[in-house]
Design brief:
- The chain is an alpha/beta fold.
- It is about 25% helix and about 20% strand.
- It has 5 helices and 7 strands, in the order αβαβαββαβαββ.
- The longest helix has 11 residues.
């Protein structure tokens, strides 16, 4: 079954942060908001490294797209959730990707996970007025001891942690 979709390269600018975080860890991974770049990468990386990936999505048709392509498997649990506040995510994670809609739910999820995840990766984290009005990330930065930013692309990705120093994250 083929799907027609509009895709921007900007949708994948969190991949450098994801790839680095995955290379530094061995534990469970949480994906809030499934994506055409993040989900396939995380899916196959978790299979190859025998890790658990738990994905949540609140758009039923988009979730079904990944189910139709057989992404659900023993290493990859896919969940539909009407509201991300209902997602069962309150447990330890090695890597968390925050990339869901509605945009206002991102800071709520980060607050829940700040002391549960070794690496929290937030997408679209440019520090300017436009992004701040949309995502309000400045509310969550003080919750973390460590922060580093992937700013080599137009849309930035930020890695946050309370447990792992990030001085040499990109090395």
């Amino acid at each position: 079954m083929a799907y027609r979709m509009n895709v921007s390269g900007n949708y994948g600018t969190h991949l450098p942060a994801l790839i680095k975080a995955m290379s530094k860890t061995t534990g469970d991974v949480l994906e809030l908001g499934m994506g055409v770049f993040s989900t396939p990468y995380l899916h196959y990386q978790c299979i190859l490294s025998n890790r658990k990936l738990v994905s949540y999505e609140n758009f039923r048709n988009w979730l079904q797209f990944f189910i139709d392509y057989h992404y659900e498997c023993p290493n990859h649990e896919i969940n539909f959730v009407e509201n991300y506040a209902d997602a069962k995510i309150d447990r330890p994670w090695d890597v968390v990707l925050i990339d869901q809609t509605p945009d206002s739910e991102r800071v709520v999820a980060v607050k829940r996970l700040a002391n549960l995840a070794n690496y929290v990766i937030i997408h679209d984290s440019n520090e300017n007025d436009r992004y701040e009005r949309t995502y309000h990330y400045s509310e969550i930065y003080p919750l973390f001891k460590y922060k580093t930013v992937w700013d080599k692309d137009r849309n930035h990705a930020t890695v946050l942690s309370n447990f792992v120093k990030l001085d040499d994250f990109w090395k």
